[in-house]
Write a structure and sequence with these properties.
- It is a single chain.
- 31% of the residues lie in helices and 24% in strands.
- It has eleven helices and 14 strands.
- An eight-stranded mixed sheet has the order 1-4-5-3-2-6-7-8, sandwiched between helices. A six-stranded mixed sheet has the order 10-9-11-12-13-14, with helices on one face.
- Strand 2, helix 2 and strand 3 form a beta-alpha-beta unit.
- Helix 2 packs across helix 9 and helix 8 packs across helix 10.
- The longest helix has 14 residues.
- It is elongated and about 70 Å long.
Length: 346
């Protein structure tokens, strides 16, 4: 069931949801959390579809906040709220409210969302794209116990990781981190079997992929060894190589679906390591609502500390400009002339 509300308010939206549940014969729906999605019109459909798929595992009230761009000074002054209520088969296993904010209301989205939150239930805020630098300091982000972003969708993913580390607050997480959960599990299981010390590591993946950087920072932080980041054509993360005294442990995934695990003294084995869609990643993040300390430690390790030596390379001194070079040469002390040799009679 879908109900369209134009120029409405939060009270009317709540009343519409109650009436819709009665009309379909389900006055009480067991929902475990409120998922607030902050997005735009371009990404709203894909984000809502992923949230509906994830709701089969986590029944929730989904509140989609779409901030409409005002194109004229008059429309920027006029505040208007349009809403769409979806209950039943149109909203997964919970209920969905799509909010479209116009004018000055765009800057006060939290005042619209707050009355729509489920009472006594945790709140998760998700930015599929365009997340603020300070998630916990954002008015909508302050409503949530968990705040989910996706650094992969940013224009500068590697630079964004540094900003996330500087503004980290307990409850922040990233779908780029969630993507490497199977890799971390497989590598940890391999080290449990070998019982050897790792002396160095190499993480291979496509350029500008924050999942590769996060995995490299996790290895460097947990193992305390130099980790080198190398590039490949992808897709995504392609290989990890752990050097030990007994040989190399290699987890290689060239096609994005099936990986090969190679360990010293054991035959090579094929392991399923397919790339997961957004709905699976979101469902995994909704399973835990406590702070992820491992993600925090890996994020704060720092991208600049990755490299062949495990530390940032020293910056080369810049070459002086021609004019500066001439001035420096003129100011430099001249060597004293050598004394002339005395002539001797033969």
């Amino acid at each position: 069931m879908k109900i369209d509300l134009t120029e409405t308010n939060s009270s009317k939206i709540n009343a519409a949801m109650v009436q819709a549940r009665r009309d379909i014969g389900t006055p009480a729906i067991g929902m475990v959390l409120t998922l607030v999605i902050v997005t735009d019109e371009e990404n709203a459909y894909d984000a809502l579809k992923s949230a509906n798929d994830a709701s089969h595992e986590h029944p929730s009230r989904i509140v989609v906040v779409i901030k409409r761009v005002s194109r004229s000074p008059r429309s920027r002054r006029d505040a208007r709220l349009d809403a769409e209520v979806r209950v039943g088969a149109d909203s997964g296993t919970g209920e969905t409210v799509v909010l479209r904010l116009h004018g000055e209301l765009v800057d006060h989205a939290q005042s619209v969302v707050l009355p729509l939150l489920l009472p006594d239930a945790p709140v998760v805020v998700w930015w599929p794209d365009g997340a603020p630098s300070d998630l916990a300091g954002d008015p909508l982000g302050a409503l949530g116990q968990r705040r989910i972003t996706d650094t992969y969708s940013c224009e500068d993913p590697i630079g964004t990781l540094a900003k996330r580390a500087a503004a980290y607050a307990p409850g922040d997480t990233d779908l780029s981190w969630t993507r490497i959960t199977p890799w971390r599990s497989m590598l940890a299981a391999a080290l449990d079997q070998q019982r050897v010390s790792v002396v160095s590591a190499v993480v291979e993946g496509e350029d500008e992929n924050p999942s590769c950087e996060l995995l490299a920072m996790w290895l460097a932080d947990r193992l305390g060894v130099p980790v080198q980041r190398t590039l490949s054509s992808g897709p995504g993360l392609t290989a990890v190589r752990l050097e030990t005294k007994d040989g190399a442990i290699v987890l290689d995934r060239a096609d994005g679906a099936l990986a090969t695990l190679c360990m010293p003294g054991q035959p090579d084995r094929a392991v399923a390591l397919k790339r997961r869609d957004t709905a699976e990643l979101l469902a995994e993040e909704l399973r835990r609502l406590d702070p992820d300390n491992t993600y925090e430690a890996s994020l704060k390790f720092g991208v600049t500390r990755l490299g062949p030596s495990g530390a940032p390379a020293p910056a080369a001194a810049p070459e002086p400009a021609p004019a500066e070079a001439e001035a420096a040469e003129a100011a430099a002390p001249k060597p004293a002339p050598k004394p002339a040799k005395k002539a001797t009679a033969k």
